[in-house]
Automatic annotation (TrEMBL):
Domain Nucleoside phosphorylase: 35-312
Source species taxonomy: Bacteria, Pseudomonadati, Pseudomonadota, Betaproteobacteria, Burkholderiales
Magnesium among keywords: no
One GO BP: nucleoside metabolic process
Residues annotated as signal peptide: 1-24
Protein name: Adenosylhomocysteine nucleosidase
InterPro entries reported in the protein's UniProt record: Nucleoside_phosphorylase_d, Nucleoside_phosphorylase_sf
Keywords, ordered alphabetically: Signal
GO molecular function, one term: catalytic activity
Organism: Rivibacter subsaxonicus
Length: 358
């Protein structure tokens, strides 16, 4: 019987080593080539990126189309998430499970929050948050479900706080008469568990974008158009009805916010700008940011402003942005400019490597 122990022990050792090796390596169920993962929430823009991808190859996973290839000198995989936080979460994790993703890029359309910005501007926030992750109290009194004000520990929750360490103020509506209407909506932080903070996990409100990627974004000078590709008539003249009034700009910095709602409430938009100094509002990026943070993958996001979230009345610029194809054209232009600059930066030898060669 003892003779059997040696092969059994050897088999157990091999299985243990294989398990350790698998745990130490990134999962890549479909393709293990290191790539930048690009998630787009807007189909027309994803089509532009795919059209410019060299040597494209399509992988269909659970009905979703993932396109691999080379884009502006970078090995990429491009996927359309579809609208919503749930879709963005699911697709981002699929991307990380099936491909070897070294960095993530999110691109698409957003509603503006800062009234100083214009339709057609492209924003690159330096952090993202989820303001609709809330504790819904009966009124504006600090919640005290665990015995003392602001303590949510017994529920496994934590309120969002400002720079002064105090809970952020709840949203208060204004009735037509001007009287305040308390909603009891207190923003809270998200719990996240990953290899860095296991086993206890931790709480986050802001998800910072990658510092290196943001630094490259600050160097960009993309050619943003005022008129979309469909604004030019057959005779070469421009249809001004398909052009936005203000020359679009690239705006880097500030906070972006995402939630599971389509925001059409001007009072809530003003609250987000006042309390969070938010620049844009949409339904995907902060979910991608959460997944990226949980998996330890750097990310950045580019968002073209389609309107003032919750803006009142008809805005001709909004119609021009979509009807002319300007929304996807300008957004894709920034994404492509970033990829080109990022690829060039990676190919450029660092001072340390240069000295080593000497």
């Amino acid at each position: 019987m003892r003779a059997l122990h040696k092969p059994l022990a050897a088999t157990a050792l091999l299985l243990a080593l294989a398990s350790q090796s698998a745990n130490a390596s990134p999962r890549c169920l479909t393709d293990c080539t290191p790539r930048i993962g690009i998630v787009s929430a807007f189909g027309a823009e994803a089509d532009i990126l795919v059209e410019q991808t060299r040597n494209p190859r399509t992988h269909t996973i659970n009905g979703k189309r993932f396109t691999t290839g080379t884009l502006r000198g970078n090995r990429v995989v491009i996927v359309l998430s579809g609208v919503s936080m749930v879709n963005a979460t699911m697709v981002t994790q699929q991307l990380l499970d099936h491909f070897r993703i070294e960095r993530l890029v999110m691109s698409g359309i957003a509603g503006g929050v800062n009234p100083a910005n214009h339709v057609g501007d492209v924003t690159v926030p330096d952090r993202w948050a989820m303001p609709m992750e809330v504790f819904w109290n009966a009124n504006s009194t600090l919640p005290a479900p665990c015995g003392s004000p602001r303590d949510l520990g017994c529920l496994g929750l934590k309120l969002a706080t400002g720079a002064d360490g105090q809970p952020l103020p709840p949203f208060v509506l204004r009735a037509p008469s001007g009287e305040p209407v308390e909603t009891g909506l207190f923003m809270r932080q998200n719990y996240v568990l990953n290899n860095a903070n296991a086993p206890a996990g931790g709480f986050m409100f802001d998800y910072p974008v990658d510092a290196r990627m943001l630094a490259v974004a600050r160097t960009l000078a993309p050619r943003l158009e005022r008129c979309g590709p469909r604004a030019r008539r057959a005779d070469g003249t421009l249809d001004e009805a398909l052009c936005v009034k203000q020359q679009p700009r690239l705006l880097v910095g500030g906070r972006g916010v995402s939630a599971t709602v389509f925001l059409a409430n001007p009072q809530y938009r003003a609250y987000l700008h006042e309390v969070l100094q938010a620049q844009s509002f949409e339904m995907e990026t902060a979910a991608l940011a959460h997944v990226a943070h949980a998996n330890g993958v750097p990310y950045i996001a580019f968002r073209s402003l389609s309107d003032l979230a919750g803006g009142e009345g008809f805005d001709a610029d909004v119609g021009a942005l979509f009807a002319s194809g300007l929304a996807e054209a300008n957004e894709a232009e920034v994404t492509l400019a970033f990829l080109e600059a990022w690829g060039a930066a990676q190919r450029r030898p660092s001072p340390a490597r240069g000295l080593a060669r000497k």
